[in-house]
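idk why but the lab printer keeps eating my pages so im just putting this in chat instead. protein + zinc ion:
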Amino acid sequence: MTFLGLVIIVVDDRNISTDGFKVNTQSHLAPLLATAIKAELNKETAKNGYTEDGNTKERKDSAYKKHHPILLQLLADEAGCEPEDIHDFELQTCDTQPSTIAGAMKEFIFSGRLDNLCMSFCSLKALIDSTASETSLEDETGVRMVALYDHEEVGSNSAQGAGSPVTLDALSRITSAFGEDSKLLQKAIQKSFLVSADMAHALHPNYTDRHEENHQPKMHCGLAIKHNANQRYATNAVTSFLFKEIATKHDIPVQDFVVRNDMGCGSTIGPILASGVGIRTVDIGAPQLSMHSIREMCAVDDVKYSYDHFKAFYEEFSHLDAKLIVDI
Ligand SMILES: [Zn+2]
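predcted complex ->
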């Protein structure tokens, strides 16, 4: 979709370099659709919203009463329908500039929404490629899956978010295809493993004090395994070991992340799914800078490391897990 939305932040403050800029999410983030003058000159652009003499047509649809005809015409053009066909919609503005590879050594990716499209891309491609050859599933004893959820950034509590029954329902339907055993789902869950992949905050050269001294995820150093004793991340010693073991075998770099004791810790869908489904989980993510800004930044190398790590994990987890002996 090529909808042209523009988000403007009004900055006219002489003290900004000393006092900083605090975004007011109500008044500073209003999307700009068109100027009133231009809209007046181009009434025919919104032909379906106006009558010949320029008055707004009487519409019974609620969308027509609530939204400007130019916006509705833009959306109708993109969707290939008439504006009056639109009954309602959800709309998000976003940066439409393509991602760029840059840096003196071409080592960085600048892109919108790296968090969490980067992990989504790497995991999906790894899954597809791990099953590409005719023999790739010959010795597989498990089911390889990728699950990509909506609404992680707003808490995952929605009908299709990680907090919904959708994961358990999917597992239930898949296991029911393998036989009549009424306990098959529970058995499958005990044998399963979840890699909760969400981007991680890399060490920033201007803010080195924001990271715990011995756990500073660095770009170009592979996926960071996230640990938190308060279970903001669902990693434990066993899941961390299994995930690292695959990396070690394939010479893929991997690192550990623990937040400073005096700082708040983010979270992921890892603990939500671990507690809701009862599945072993490791929380991991590729390091990046400028998370949640309109233009985020990560390292080219880490995309490759993430893909390689995920692919090897898909291919070898079942065999590795079968060999695991945990003495508690
Ligand atoms: Zn995020």
